[in-house]
Amino acid sequence: MEHEPHRGYSMAPFSLKEIEELYEIRELIEPSLVPAAIEKIDKNGLNELKTALEAHFAAERESYLKERLFRNRDFHMTLASLSGKTTQIRILQNVFDMLFLKYGGNYFPISSLSSTDQAHQEIYDAVALRSLERAQSVLKNHLTNVKIQVMTSIKKILAEQERTEF
After folding, report:
1. How many structural domains does the chain have?
2. Domain containing 92 — which CATH number?
3. Which residue in 4, 40, 142, 153 is a FRET match for 115, CA 20 to 30 A apart?
């Protein structure tokens, strides 16, 4: 959102740089919350994370629909919430809001579905075993891979739009 005095608010134009920065914020925040999440997690917290994981697996698989994106976000936000670090959780929620509200999330390649499922399962397993290094490593790799896939997908979309404009 941009604000112009005496004109009001408007949506800022689509920005590849902004999307990349939002994913870089995720790459910084999410792994930093894992130590506190693992330290504080109890049976209820593990059940919450398992429920979020299962909801992600159960979401529509024909294409990367909004329901699946929201379940993906829920898994990541559930893991973050287990840390109890409210300021970082709020920032992360704002990052997801910017990604979904402004950009809609329709830039995920369908080919990433199985790798996302596998990464989420591995993250859950590592957290359940309280394996800090493994959980952080898998999460960091997952976020980096998603960022690369999203950036590649968006560049293709933009190139296609340029070709089809008159």
Report:
1. 1
2. 1.20.120.530
3. 40
pLDDT tens digits, 15-25: 889 999 999 99
Q: What is the pLDDT of residues 46-95, one digit of tens each?
A: 999 999 999 999 887 665 567 888 899 999 999 999 999 999 999 999 99
DSSP-assigned beta bridge partners for residue 3: 9
**Cα atoms in the 13 Å half-sphere on the side-chain side of 152:** 11
For residue 3, the model assigns a pLDDT of 64
What pTM was computed for the model?
0.86
Identify whether 130 is part of a domain.
Answer: yes
| Separation of alpha carbons 25 and 60, rounded Å | 28
Closest CA to 45 of 32, 30, 34, 31: 34
Phi and psi angles of residue 165, each rounded to the nearest 5 degrees, phi first: -75, 145
For residues 140 and 35, the answer to whether their CB atoms sit within 8 Å is no
In a domain, 137, yes or no: yes
Q: By the 8 A CB rule, do 26 and 98 touch?
A: no
CB 164 within 8 A of CB 29: no
- Which residue range forms the structural domain that includes residue 113? 29-157
